[in-house]
Amino acid sequence: MKQGYLCLVLHAHLPYVRHVDDHSYLEERWFFEALTETYIPIVQVLERLVRDEINFRMTLSISSTLLSMLTDEVMQSRYVHYLETLINLALSEIKRTEQDKDLYQLACYYYEHFTELLLDYQACQGNLAGRLRVLQEQGMVELLTSAATHAYLPLVHTREAIRAQLKTALDLHEKTFGRRPRGIWLPECGYESRIDEILRECGIEFFFTDTHGVEWAQPIPIFGTLSPVLTPMRVAAFARDAQSAKQVWSSIDGYPGDFDYREYYRDIGFDLAMEHIHQGIHPDGIRVNTGIKYYRITGLTKDKKLYDPQRALDKATGHATHFLSSIRQQISEAHTTMGRKPIVVCPYDAELFGHWWYEGPHWLDQVLRQLAEEQMVIQPLTPSEYLEEYNDFQVCELPLSSWGRAGASDVWLQEENVWVYPALHIAERRMIELANRWNEPSKEQRVALNQAARELMLGQSSDWAFIMDNKTMVDYAIKRTKKHVNAFTMLYEMLVHDAIDSRVVQAMVEMDPIFPDVDYQVYRSQVQKHTGAPSVLFLSWEFPPLTVGGLSRHVDDLSRHLVTSGWDVHVVTVQPGDCAADEIVHGVHVYRVEPLQPDGEQFFHWVMRFNLQMLERCQALFEQGLQVDVIHAHDWLVHDVAKVLKKQYQLPLIATIHATEHGRNGGIHTELQNRIHQVEHDLIREAQRVIVCSDYMAHEVITVFSLQDVEVDKIVVIPNGVERMRFLDDGVITQVSDIHAVNDQHHIVFIGRLVREKGVHVLLEAAPDIFADFPNAVIVIMGKGPMQRELQEQAQHAGIESRVRFLGFVSDETRNTWLQEASVAVFPSLYEPFGIVALEAMRAHTPVVVADVGGLCEVVSHEQTGLTFFAGNPHSLAHQVKRLLHDKALAQHVIDEAKLMIEREYDWNVLAKNTIHVYEQVLDATISREAAVR
Known about the structure:
By secondary structure, the chain is of the alpha/beta class. It folds into four domains: about 1-70 and about 125-260 and about 305-405, 7-stranded beta/alpha barrel, CATH 3.20.110.10; about 415-525, immunoglobulin/albumin-binding domain-like (Up-down Bundle); about 535-715, Glycogen Phosphorylase B (Rossmann fold, 3-Layer(aba) Sandwich), CATH 3.40.50; about 745-905, Rossmann fold (3-Layer(aba) Sandwich), CATH 3.40.50.2000. It has 34 helices and 23 strands. Strands 1, 2, 3, 4, 5, 6, 7, 8 and 9 form a nine-stranded mixed sheet that branches. α28 links the parallel β19 and β20. The longest helix is centred in the middle third of the chain and has 30 residues, at about 310-340.
């Protein structure tokens, strides 16, 4: 029986080093050497495993810069020339060493190896990416991407630039490999908290961190690094296993330092006289690594022994066996305590295998072959497969981390490279400015805009700062950074001054043709400029997933149906901790602000601070190009921001009063209540129209605020609506544990906030009377609020606590299932402006009993669409509930009538159109006033 999993992950990346103007750049050899020693050998290993019918799994990340070079015809042609040069060099070595048997055999070995690589490469016409796609389709390899130019994301300044790096990479990957990757290799494993919501927005399900990236998470992960954890945005983070990393990475304590392996630092390009190597080095006579290396590591000595390829391969086979033995022991120990199968994640730079550790591809081959023969304990797996096996991962806050020095940003932000980021940050902001400015550019402008995006991304490559810190090829890294920043600046100046030099722009395109399908609009702020459709700005402190009462559901439903009616809808609301700051939900643009915490009991102060935050966000949105026709404020909590925006931007204001402080409390009794009451009245005065949900509410608003005729004329009644409920009408039911615990058990359900105005205490007072006639009846209470403990104590004192279930806050799916399964739904409110939850129960084909108060009386007609009882009277409530439980014909009658009524009077499509009519009336009146002034 398998006890755990091994996840092998290779990250293949090189910076973009294509120089169309000069093929002699030393840096292009990075690509050719990696192709020769790493990429082609690894692909060959994987293809042989497939041919030998070995069932294996490998995860391979291909950066977009490397992918662009792999598929570039110029680079493919140059690589063929590179291999031909090596073959000729090996031929000359065969002649030179023919008198030395051992060296001669090694020279022949390299000649045969280079020739095989050339034949292999020409056979696939250089299409290495196509071969990887086949391996993916065979189900053995999971292909991932990285950021477009391997930018170190924690030091990227703006959200837009991070998103551009990710989306550009995802688009290129999908175009090349035929499917969107589920995971990503974050460049340098660089992560910080703001990145996870952008990953989620881009559809990324998982990423990798260094060991401490998970070990230092809060709360401390209970399974350590042997299981992924979820970020607050539910993106999975897989951590590198420290033990296996050291075995494979370390040149001192790990396998690559074994004395029988090939010595990387002894190459004929430096060992031999120029007369023997001139055809294999740089045209300017610069000595370089040729790839022909005759010696093994031997030890800490300059006296190196000759390399023995077969001996080295045998050693790699033994190291594969040792590696799996260590993993096996680790998994066996963890499995007994975890209660699930652990996963050991082993991520490495692909270039380790073959380039630095010449025998690495053979080691990979042996690990995967021996795993296939494994009869117990270990199974190879990809991250996606592990996420499909379990669905209850721990949610943690992850710290800033990387696999660079000190585990943070030290490598990329040192004295040598600190100058880079201020310049890049200016370019980021300017790129966003350009993207937001041009909606419909000319062809000439579009070419320049797209090239500006390329230049910025290329300048952001983490490789340049890394090279500066590492003090290798520093001049080249500085030159590349300045080249791209300067090119971007030139393009920016051309665009903003309408002085585009097409010849200069075309030269830039030809020099760096990476990402041919790049779209500059990827840098746009998520605020959309006006599309021509009418547009409304909703202000609401509640919006899903934050659901405290009916306000959230109302704003959600109305906004979505306005979108289907052709309106652009923008919602500014509160950000819960586990939700994206900005997103588009069912076509609705949602912007969330994270409110400051309440200041003790000073709730009113919290509301003021929240309004200030909303105001700042709205003003920023308008500055970024948001244009709206109408502001729609929902309840008094957004009064301040609505009032300021109305005056600052000369926009008409609509207000919906969902309830009043007077009605909630049966009068105004405290100073806080009076202040809220005054704010409500001021919101009514400021608004051009005031929407209420029922005739009852219209009367309450007019009476409570003593409205004069001119204010009364503002009042418009538009009821709440209800949609087809997912999981109900389509015949699919979400399973709820214990819902069928007892045969013929009657479930009496309540849904709502546990506050006095909802009357749950009246239901509990009626419960003994109901239970006397129906011993199998159970009351199910869904919702939470300040009265929960008091209600639980009431049930306990009445001796009915075993028959009353407090479920707390439940998901929509759970709520819908309980509604459908209930025998009756009860809403015993003492105050209820409308009662949307009663409509939802009716939509679920459940008979309802409601108090004869407020808007409930308008929704429920006694003995037609439900039953009503005298508000606050438990005996009346019990009587009506028992009638429905006794009389199945009556119950079915009210169900049928309620269904017809909902379809006729409470369809959201109709209600949205009624709301639009209100908007249009206000807009027409505004236009008329402006015309009169002119």
